[in-house]
Design a protein that fits this description.
With 671 residues, the protein is mostly helical. The protein folds into two domains: 501 residues, Up-down Bundle (Amino acid/polyamine transporter I); 148 residues, no CATH class. 69% of the residues lie in helices and 5% in strands. A four-stranded antiparallel β-sheet has the order 1-2-3-4. 44% of the residues are buried. It holds the Pfam family BCCT. Keywords: Cell membrane, Membrane, Transmembrane, Transmembrane helix, Transport. It is a multi-pass membrane protein. Belongs to the BCCT transporter (TC 2.A.15) family. This is BCCT family transporter.
């Protein structure tokens, strides 16, 4: 009892999120395990009703997400950064792509790379068509399900989270995507409900993936002779090893374990794909990849809007594949979106959308072409339907496919390694995300909390696997996708509201009643323009001109009952005037001694005063809202005072407008 109290004292869990989430997770697990058949039947009926009667809702929602993101790419908002205007990306481009890819759908590529194209190719719905048409359509439908539409779903959630977190400095939480609508109410019960929904959805998605994936991994290990069977005992061992490594990875930190495993796996996966290209029907694969992309582009709008209302005989396939996929991607969006947002600070909106939509989609297309088209080619020309007859046994299909290529034992072992690492990266990033949700993105959490999530995932996945309740859990997860699609539409509305305010806030011109200078003392100003400054000269200017100006202003503010303070820092040299506020953001006007690189052409130009080297220094302003500053080296003391008042006038004017509360409200950003 004492140890539990100690853990609770050092915990960063938020009770309003954690307690209802655990109650719901354990209750659903209990019902699904004790009454697996009844639960599966009941939930199956609910899912079927939704898919048959509300399929248009999924189609319209996903279509809107695609159009919305493309609009942002080509709009004036695309250049806005996910962070301060001067923010730099936290991770390299390769690391960023590797992590978002591994968390997004890496494990699915191994499971469905062969299984889905073969399933479409052999489906009875398309039997009247000839082999070539069925093979081309199999590639087309697989592209459709794993392409831009899927990543648009992830992109909407990830972009909303990243924007409000890094641009508005709100905690990384789904609730804060509603801030333009709910304002400070996001910190109440409604916000807890949203985060509880996200936590449960993430937990169930990872649990079902872990449970079903273990079966495939078990089948592969039997295939290569590592394990002697596929009983529950073997599955316990596999889950234990996966979660032990995942816990070690996630407790080592995002920049170590998760990043390393993601990069390692993408390298191995690419090498594995190249192996199939080289030893498989190379010319056919390269040609069909080009043709497949063209076919996808040509059919893009038809596929996007099609509900098969005029083809009732095709609708069961449509419900079991397209609608199920849209529901599955939506149900995974809280988890993947949170993780993508966590690693995307410093990217522009245009860069974020372009990378999230295009790069993973292009890789998915290449992967599905290599494995899917190789499978249909082998099925048509080598096995004469053997792979098609195994379409319902996706766990073993990949390894049966590899048996028709050279060194099947080695290729199967590599496939198992990739599946294994993808499981680990999904689990460790999942633990990271769940802990982030449950703590409202606490700055630092004890490592035992990450261990807790790993152990809970492993235990409940095994319980459901043994009791046959995984299907019920998966079905319930798919059902929750419908209400979350509506939530995502509201995310889009909130995001566009924030972007409009953002553009207005940072694009606001200075007051026309003021100017930088009047022309007085123009000879002194000319002398400053024509001289390159040393670090010491700029420091002297700041101490002799800037600091006295700010001190004089602070004294005047204080005499009028407005608390103002001037602070000075030596490294780097900076002087700042700060007026602190309780309910709105602080007003800060500062000047920093900043280095600047000079062009070689200017250094060597004879018609301007020369410089001793390629570096000079300038006194550059900075502000509390992180707007881009400017050089004030030509300003006199009075002009510095006038410039501060000009910025303060702008600050007061912006703070007085209701629409700018998103930027000026300080109460929602308190820890």
């Amino acid at each position: 009892m004492l140890s539990i109290k100690k853990l609770s004292a050092y915990s960063t869990f938020k009770k309003g999120i954690m307690i209802p989430s655990l109650v719901f997770i354990l209750s659903v697990t209990f019902v699904s395990s004790v009454f697996p058949n009844r639960t599966a039947t009941l939930l199956g009926r609910v899912q079927d009703w939704i898919f048959v009667n509300m399929n248009w809702m999924y189609v319209w929602s996903v279509t809107f997400f695609v159009i919305f993101l493309f609009f942002l790419v080509f709009s004036k908002y695309g250049s806005i950064k996910l962070g301060d205007n001067h923010a730099e990306p936290e991770h390299s481009f390769f690391s960023w792509i590797s992590m978002l890819f591994a968390a997004g759908m890496g494990i699915g590529l191994m499971y469905f790379g062969v299984a889905e194209p073969i399933s479409h190719f052999s489906d009875q719905t398309f039997r009247p068509l000839n082999d070539i048409t069925r093979a081309k359509n199999a590639q087309l439908y697989t592209f459709f399900h794993w392409g831009i539409h899927a990543w648009a779903i992830y992109g909407v959630v990830g972009l909303s989270l990243a924007y409000f977190t890094y641009r508005f400095k709100l905690p990384l939480s789904l609730r804060n995507c509603f801030y333009p609508i709910l304002k400070n109410k996001v910190n109440g019960i409604g916000g807890d409900v949203i985060d509880t929904f996200a936590l449960c959805s993430t937990f169930f998605g990872i649990t079902t993936t872990l449970g079903f994936g273990v079966v495939q991994l078990n089948a592969g290990l039997v295939q290569v002779g590592v394990l002697g069977g596929s009983g529950f005992g073997y599955q316990v061992a596999i889950v234990s090893v996966i979660m032990a490594i995942a816990i070690l990875s996630t407790t080592s930190g995002l920049n170590k374990g998760i990043k390393f495993l993601s990069q390692l796996n993408i390298i191995i996966a690419v090498a594995f794909m190249l192996f199939i290209i080289i030893v498989g029907p190379t010319v056919f694969l390269l040609g069909s990849f080009s043709e497949g992309i063209g076919y996808y582009i040509n059919q893009f709008f038809n596929l996007t809007f099609n509900t098969y209302a005029y083809e009732p005989e095709t609708q069961p396939w449509f419900f079991n594949w397209t609608i199920l996929y849209w529901a599955w991607w939506i149900s995974w969006a809280p988890y993947v979106g949170l993780f993508i947002a966590r690693i995307s600070r410093g990217r522009t909106i245009r860069e974020f959308i372009g990378a999230v939509l295009i790069i993973p989609t292009a890789f998915n297309f290449l992967w599905m072409t290599v494995f899917g088209n190789s499978a249909t080619w082998v099925d048509r020309n080598v096995t004469h339907g053997a792979l098609s007859r195994m379409a319902d046994n996706a766990d073993e299909l990949l390894f049966l496919f590899l048996s028709h290529f050279p060194v099947p034992a080695i290729s199967s072992a590599v496939a198992i390694l990739i599946i294994f690492i993808f499981f680990v990266t999904s689990a460790d990033s999942g633990m990271f995300v769940m802990n982030s949700i449950a703590t409202k993105n606490a700055a630092k959490s004890p490592k035992w909390q990450l261990v807790f999530w790993g152990v809970l995932l492993a235990l409940l996945a095994l319980v459901l696997l043994n009791a046959g309740g995984l299907q019920s859990l998966q079905t319930m997860t798919l059902i929750t996708a419908l209400p979350f699609s509506i939530i995502m539409l509201l995310f889009c509305y909130s995001l566009i509201q924030g972007l409009i305010i953002d553009n207005n806030y940072y694009g606001r011109a200075l007051s026309p009643a003021t100017s930088y200078w009047s022309g007085e003392f123009w000879k002194d100003r000319l002398q400053r323009i024509l001289s390159f400054k040393s670090k010491e000269a700029v420091a002297d200017f700041m101490l002799q001109t800037v600091q006295p100006a700010l001190n004089e202003l602070a004294d005047e503010f204080n005499s009028r009952g407005i608390a103002a303070v001037v602070t000075t820092r030596e490294r780097p040299m900076e002087v700042a005037l700060t007026i602190k506020h309780a309910l709105i953001e602080d007003f800060v006007y500062g000047v920093r001694n900043q280095s600047k690189v000079i062009s070689d052409f200017l250094v060597n130009e004879e018609n301007v005063p020369g410089a001793a080297g390629n570096n000079t220094y300038i006194p550059k302003t900075f502000f509390g809202d992180n707007r881009t500053g400017y050089n004030v080296e030509s300003f006199t003391k009075k002009e510095i005072i006038a410039d501060v008042l000009k910025q303060y006038e702008r600050f007061i004017e912006l703070s007085s407008e209701v629409k700018n509360e998103l930027f000026t409200d300080n109460t929602s950003k308190r820890p």
